[in-house]
């Protein structure tokens, strides 16, 4: 029976936070607007403060808070209802919808488990290599499905492997000596910490290098997509395709992966040996999958096809070399056959995603052990498993970004922030922004944080006469680098729920990785993203 006082706590907390948000918003609306800020911008600021409080405290469900602009903006004459509603069904949101649908197909036919177990079979022998194998498999999967799903997949496998590592094999020739047993127990605990945190960290790091790998990347892409209506030339200049994103941020992801592995494996002794039971368990799990059936092969074809189309759609410039995208090739072929076809501005990565998604509904397959054929995907599965709340969170962020631009709030905040950064060089500015975002997202939703910060950072960069991507890109990547606390990201919370970790263990490893992330993001932004990808001041 639920204790009445315990049941009342969440109700009281939500009501208190709601009242506090309303009081703060009302107070902001009643004071005299600061110099340079329009009344509409002030009212928008009140709504943003209220939403930031509700997002950060999670007093309301994140998706419900994300719906506030649809009601508040028209009522406060910030933006018309028709205008604000467009933010909730943009090309970027459809890109994520198609990505979620394909990921559901991958999970439905077990491709993700096959890939994970294959990586463990090939790479895992000693404790350090087992940690590497789990991290590699998790990172590879999280490039294409959500980091939450990747962590949920790998955690049960890790928890099954841990008991198979006997204390005797870790202790070496310790026999039954109590001191040797204690030493073995300590070693096993250090290994468990490294393995579980490795899964959480790799799930976040792997998503950095693809545009659909983590929601924050999609927020950046959607920001410029939503700006295309009012500022088409600027939006076209700063928009990033999936191929360009992969080229820019894969090196950062690789270095962060290496840094995480070294931080976690540093306490592990090299002379450890792992018993055969761990390897046998992984081998048996993989063998139990059997050979790939017709459904798996078809799903693999869809997966490879959409990945190829995403990565090669737009042309990518690397210094003086240009890699021609398929949209250019297709336009040239059609032009030679029938008039003039130019796909510039017509196609989006969501075009390829939705095309491949619809193919899943018309490809018939016969799964192993079934007499009758069925289609690769059905709508009921999409409807049940799509994280609709994440799509609404995107919409709320895009609505805020659009209103910040139209009301002048982002320009005003940008001027204020620019005054603080004026005396710093590019490296100092990137360091300040990166450090701020990394440690802020330890306590707040990374998607909501980036959705709120991007318009402010663009205006700040404009006030400082900088390329806005100098601040916006590292901030976006930094939002995926919160490694210290269980509440920072879903993968952190998932591995913490195993009851094999303490908060202090997470803080010790996560703090070092947070600091290393600042250095990696700053260095690669300056010397790779901005120079090789032709993103200068």
From TrEMBL:
Signal peptide: none annotated. GO terms for molecular function: succinate transmembrane transporter activity. Keywords: Membrane, Transmembrane, Transmembrane helix, Transport. The lineage of its organism: Bacteria, Pseudomonadati, Planctomycetota, Planctomycetia, Planctomycetales. It comes from Rubinisphaera brasiliensis (strain ATCC 49424 / DSM 5305 / JCM 21570 / IAM 15109 / NBRC 103401 / IFAM 1448). InterPro entries: Na/sul_symport_CS (IPR031312), SLC13A/DASS (IPR001898). The keyword Transmembrane helix applies. It is a multi-pass membrane protein. One of its GO terms (cellular component) is plasma membrane. It is found in: Membrane. The chain crosses the membrane at residues 12-32, 44-67, 87-106, 127-145, 151-170, 191-213, 245-266, 297-326, 346-365, 386-413, 469-489, 509-530. This is Anion transporter. Its main location: membrane. PANTHER family: SOLUTE CARRIER FAMILY 13 MEMBER, SOLUTE CARRIER FAMILY 13 MEMBER 2. It holds the Pfam family Na_sulph_symp.
């Amino acid at each position: 029976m639920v204790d009445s006082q315990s049941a009342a706590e969440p109700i009281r907390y939500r009501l208190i936070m709601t009242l506090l948000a309303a009081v703060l918003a009302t107070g902001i609306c009643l004071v005299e607007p600061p110099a340079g800020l329009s009344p509409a911008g002030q009212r928008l600021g009140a709504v943003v403060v209220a939403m930031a409080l509700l997002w950060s405290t999670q007093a309301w469900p994140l998706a419900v808070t994300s719906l506030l602009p649809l009601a508040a903006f028209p009522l406060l004459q910030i933006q018309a209802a028709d205008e604000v509603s467009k933010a909730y069904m943009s090309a970027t949101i459809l890109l994520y919808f198609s990505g979620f649908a394909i990921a559901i197909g991958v999970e439905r036919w077990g491709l993700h488990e096959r890939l994970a177990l294959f990586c463990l079979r090939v790479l895992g022998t000693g404790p350090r290599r087992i940690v590497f194998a789990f991290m590699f498999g998790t990172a590879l999967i999280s490039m294409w499905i959500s980091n939450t799903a990747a962590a949920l997949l790998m955690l049960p496998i890790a928890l099954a492997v841990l008991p198979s590592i006997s204390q005797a094999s870790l202790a070496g020739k310790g026999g039954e000596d109590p001191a040797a047993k204690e030493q073995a127990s300590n070693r096993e605990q250090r290994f468990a910490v490294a393995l579980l945190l490795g899964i959480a960290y790799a799930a976040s790091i792997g998503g950095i290098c693809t545009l659909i790998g983590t929601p924050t990347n999609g927020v950046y892409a959607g920001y410029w997509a939503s700006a295309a209506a009012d500022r088409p030339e600027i939006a076209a200049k700063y928009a990033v395709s999936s191929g360009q994103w992969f080229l820019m941020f894969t090196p950062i992801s690789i270095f962060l992966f290496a840094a995480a592995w070294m931080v976690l494996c540093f306490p592990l002794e090299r002379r450890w040996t792992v018993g055969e039971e761990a390897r046998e368990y992984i081998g048996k799990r993989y063998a139990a999958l059997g050979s790939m059936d017709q459904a798996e092969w078809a799903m693999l074809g869809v997966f490879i096809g959409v990945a190829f189309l995403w990565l090669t759609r737009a042309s990518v410039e690397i210094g003086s070399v240009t890699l021609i995208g398929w949209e250019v090739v297709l336009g040239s072929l059609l032009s030679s056959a029938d008039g003039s076809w130019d796909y510039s501005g017509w196609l989006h990565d969501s075009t390829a995603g939705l095309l491949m998604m619809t193919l899943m509904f018309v490809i018939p397959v016969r799964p192993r052990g079934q007499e009758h054929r069925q289609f690769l995907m059905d709508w009921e599965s999409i409807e049940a498993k799509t994280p609709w709340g994440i799509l609404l969170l995107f919409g709320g962020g895009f609505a805020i970004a659009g209103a910040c631009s139209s009301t002048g709030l982002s320009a005003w905040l940008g001027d204020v922030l620019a005054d603080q950064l004026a005396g710093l060089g590019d490296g100092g500015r990137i360091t300040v922004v990166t450090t701020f975002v990394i440690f802020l997202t330890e306590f707040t939703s990374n998607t909501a944080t980036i959705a709120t910060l991007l318009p402010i950072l663009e205006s700040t960069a404009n006030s400082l006469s900088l390329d806005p991507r100098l601040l916006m890109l590292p901030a976006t990547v930094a939002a995926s680098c919160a490694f210290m606390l269980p509440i920072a990201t879903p993968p952190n919370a998932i591995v913490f729920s195993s009851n094999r970790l303490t908060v202090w263990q997470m803080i010790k490893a996560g703090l070092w990785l947070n600091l290393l992330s600042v250095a990696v993001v700053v260095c690669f932004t300056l010397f790779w993203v901005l120079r090789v990808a032709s993103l200068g001041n």
